[in-house]
Amino acid sequence: MKFGPVPLDQARGAILAHSEDVDGKRLRKGQCLTDDHIAALRKAGRAEVTVARLDPDDLHEDEAAAVLARSLNDGASHVHAGAPFTGRVNLIADRPGVVRIDAERINAANAVDPMITVATVPDYHQIHPGGMIATVKIIAYGVPGRALDRATDLARGAVRLAIATHATASLIVTESPGGPGDKGVEAIEARVTGLGMTLAETRRCDHDSAELAGEIAAASGDIVLILTVSATSDSCDTAPEALRRAGGRLIRFGMPVDPGNLLFIGKISGRPVIGLPGSARSPVLHGADWVLARVACGLSAGSDDIAAMGVGGLLKEIPTRPQPRRSRG
């Protein structure tokens, strides 16, 4: 691509590099200059104009962005590319789900040419319909075809959207006198429906291992969620013990995400069971969101996966209790 100022009589067919105010109107950058544009510029007293002129093997910014965006999800379902504008194309989610990003492929594509860029949300980002997953931006007005071909090959299939593979969830709430009652049920239902699932039932029982075990066994949802009136503080506490009594098994108690440290995960008869900390009663971003989203979408959420959530796992400082997190020395 050639870039720079040229006399007006050499500007026909070139791309206007910078917007110009002409006769009270805005001639916007990116315009392919016509005879009428040049006449208006000359009338306004311009003798030259800064333009970009593509070489024979260059692709225009919009065409290049569209090609690269299509390669990113390589025809995968539940994602569509928006219309190109000023060298940009956005990838948009059609369904709620969890975004999977192949970081190595994205990094490799971004290393081909500084004028070819892809920016994405983080891997495992939970997204809602209409949310932006990635944006392709061609910084120059055009890029060499060879460079685009290389970036396209490297980025192919680097973005996909995992959607819910489970349809329903059951919520079991344990109760005791003076407890929070139904507080938080609405927030948990919103988490479930936000993933495209249905909260099939909300069951209640005393905070007792035997009673809770019966409710776990009777729950009908594809995923079983447990919200206890009292925090789980050990792998042998009331809720994990109830899971064992019901015939299930505990996979992990505790996670390096805050809020969310006291979450546990297990299985019963092939169904996932998630024990929610009391802090999950709040609708703010929580470790439970990360785990529930992965489980709902059929992604791995084992002990090693949860152990790897610590970097980036400090989700929110809690203003009402900052002191325990800070040294007083």
Explain what the structure shows:
The chain is α+β, with helices and mostly antiparallel strands and 329 residues long. It folds into 3 domains: 52 residues, Molybdopterin biosynthesis moea protein, domain 2 (Alpha-Beta Complex), CATH 3.90.105; 105 residues, Aldehyde Oxidoreductase, domain 3; 140 residues, Molybdenum Cofactor Biosythetic Enzyme, Chain A (3-Layer(aba) Sandwich), CATH 3.40.980. It is elongated and about 90 Å long. The termini are far apart.
- Count the DSSP helices: 9
Low-confidence stretches: 320-324
Strand content: 25-35%
What is the number of beta strands?
Answer: 20
What order do the helices and strands follow?
A: EEEEHEEHEEEHEEEEHEEHEHEHEEEHH
With strands numbered from the N-terminus, the spatial order across the biggest sheet is 16-15-17-20-19-18
Structural class: alpha+beta
User: How much is the radius of gyration in Å?
Assistant: 27 Å
What is the averaged pLDDT score?
Answer: 94
Biggest beta sheet summary: 6 strands, mixed
Q: Per the principal axes of the C-alpha atoms, what is the gross shape?
A: elongated
Separation, N- and C-terminal Cα atoms: 61 Å
User: Could you state the CATH homologous superfamily of the largest domain?
Assistant: MoaB/Mog-like domain
Count of distinct structural domains: 3
CATH domain class name of the largest domain: Alpha Beta
Q: If classified by CATH, what would the architecture of the largest domain be?
A: 3-Layer(aba) Sandwich
CATH-defined fold name of the largest domain: Molybdenum Cofactor Biosythetic Enzyme, Chain A
Estimate the helix proportion, in percent. Answer: 25-40%
